Amino acid sequence: MKRFLWISLFASLWAACSRAPDIPSYYPLPEFSLTDQRGKAVTLHDLAGKVWVADFIFTNCGGTCPLMTDKMRTLQNALPTGVRLVSFTVDPTRDTPKVLAAYAAEHGATSDRWLFLSGDKQALHDLCIKGFKLPLDTEGGTPVEPIAHSTRFVLVDKQGAIRGYYSGTEEDELRRLATDAKRLS
After folding, report:
1. What is the pLDDT of residues 21-38, one digit of tens each?
2. Which phi and psi angles does 144 have, rounded to 5°?
3. Rounded Cα–Cα distance for residues 69 and 60 (Å)
4. Distance of CA 22 to the CA centre of its chain
5. Structure confidence by residue, pLDDT tens digits, 73-101
6. Cα 63 to Cα 147: distance, rounded to the nearest angstrom
7. Using CA atoms, how far apart are residues 173 and 53, in angstroms rounded to an integer?
């Protein structure tokens, strides 16, 4: 009987220790209305019921944006088809839907899974800073990367709440993001 109790206790402890930790929930995103690379309006409501990964980029970036876009393409190929990807531009003056469509095609984006969003400059900047709580400096960049912005990927759940921040350039962080996104989907 003692042996059975020890085995039972060990099994319970093993199960508790091997369970993946809960994914934190930070805060809900505010409503937004932007335009995708096909010229279609996209709102937060349109993404409801879907797990998605967001990032902030701009198409004429000579710094980290091409690397981040490459990592998003890797996620596109690795994640279940129900997980969406959303890239928001931080330079909507240049990044029109037509420019974003060409950029998306150049980088192998599947348009039914990966949205590239543009719109009103102030709305996008507010969404980045106040909604996603990410830094953005449109005047303090370098000649190669004139807009200083976060390289974080953001995991958003089916209810539109932020569930995690991950480096968009580090492989171990991308693996953790993929694991968390699969768990939420």
Report:
1. 689 999 999 999 999 999
2. -75, -40
3. 12
4. 19
5. 999 999 999 999 999 999 999 999 999 99
6. 10
7. 13
Collect all residues with Cβ–Cβ distance below 8 Å to 174 and sequence separation of at least 6: 71, 74, 75, 153, 166, 167, 168
Provide the pairing of β-strand 152-156 with 162-167.
Answer: antiparallel
Element holding 162 (H helix, E strand)? strand 162-167
Beta bridge partners of 108: none
Task: Give the whole-angstrom CA distance, residue 98 versus residue 38.
Answer: 7
**Sheet of strand 162-167: strand arrangement:** 114-117, 84-89, 52-57, 152-156, 162-167
Q: Where is 114: in which H helix or E strand?
A: strand 114-117
The C-alpha atoms of residue 113 and residue 92 are separated, in whole angstroms, by 21
CB 167 within 8 A of CB 154: no
Show the 3-state SS of 50-86: CCEEEEEECCCCCCCHHHHHHHHHHHHHHCCCCCEEE
Q: What is the pTM of this model?
A: 0.86
> Looking at the domain covering 25-184, what would its CATH class be?
alpha beta
